Amino acid sequence: MILLKPLFDLGVLPIRHRSGRGFKPHVSLVFNAERRLTFAIDTTNSFSPDAYLITHAHSDHHGKSAMLSEKAVCSEETAKALEILYGKKYAGRTFNVGETIDICGVDVRTYPTHHTIGSCAFYWENDVGTRILVTGDVKDAKDMPKCDLMVTEANYGDPDDPKCHFNDDIDAFRQAVEAGDVAFGAYAFGKAQRAVKLLRESGYSGEIGMEPVSRALTEGLMTNTGALADLESDCGVRITTPGGITGVKAARKFILTGMRYRFPTINISDHMDVDGLIGMVKKCEPEAVITYHPGGIRPLKLASYLNRMGIYAKALEEINTVVEI
Ligand SMILES: [Zn+2]
Question: Is the domain of 129 the same as that of 256?
Answer without folding.
Answer: no
